């Protein structure tokens, strides 16, 4: 009984310009870059725009609150930059600036 040993060569890996993507570390870097450009960057850009919009609020601006109510800013607290006073109907209420979701011109139109 003779045993024939055949020389087996391991299968060749991918070749060409996409061969670098076969490396798991390269794939992780590519996924990290995609994650940054698709998720992190747009969110930080939107946050910066919202912070800029909130810092420019002034008395008389009509705003849409995160609760869905439309209100008019009565005054901005100079001592605590995080507070604003809003006019709801005939009463004035103290609120945080972060409660403002958008200016009324950017939100739904008033009826």
| CATH architect. name of the domain at 29-103 | Roll
Cross-sheet strand order for the largest sheet: 4-3-2-1-5
Sketch the major β-sheet.
5 strands, antiparallel
Roughly what is the average pLDDT, rounded to an integer? 83
Measured distance between first and last alpha carbons: 96 Å
> Would you list the SSEs in sequence order as H and E?
HEEEEE
Number of helices: 1
**Top-tier CATH class of the domain at 29-103:** Mainly Beta
CATH topology of the domain at 29-103: SH3 type barrels
Number of beta-strand segments: 5
The low-confidence parts are none
Shape: rod-shaped
Strand content: 15-25%
Helix-and-strand structural type: alpha+beta
Helix content: 25-40%
Report the C-alpha radius of gyration, rounded: 29 Å
Structural features:
111 residues; alpha+beta; SH3 type barrels; five-stranded antiparallel beta sheet; 1 helix; 24% strand; rod-shaped
Can you walk me through this structure?
By secondary structure, this protein is an alpha+beta fold. Helix content is 29%, strand content 24%. It is built from one helix and five strands, in the order αβββββ. A five-stranded antiparallel β-sheet has the order 4-3-2-1-5, covered by helices on one side. The mean pLDDT is 83.
Brief sketch in words of this structure:
The protein is α+β, with helices and mostly antiparallel strands and 111 residues long.
């Amino acid at each position: 009984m003779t045993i024939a040993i055949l020389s087996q060569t391991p299968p060749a890996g991918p070749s060409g310009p996409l061969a670098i993507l076969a490396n798991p570390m390269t794939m992780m870097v590519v996924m990290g870059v995609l994650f940054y450009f698709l998720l992190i960057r747009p969110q930080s850009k939107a946050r910066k725009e919202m912070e800029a919009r909130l810092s420019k609020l002034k008395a008389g601006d009509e705003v849409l609150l995160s609760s869905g109510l439309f209100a008019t800013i009565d005054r901005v607290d100079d001592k605590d930059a995080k507070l604003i006073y809003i006019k709801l109907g005939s009463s004035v209420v103290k609120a945080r600036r972060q409660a403002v979701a958008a200016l009324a011109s950017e939100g739904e139109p008033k009826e």
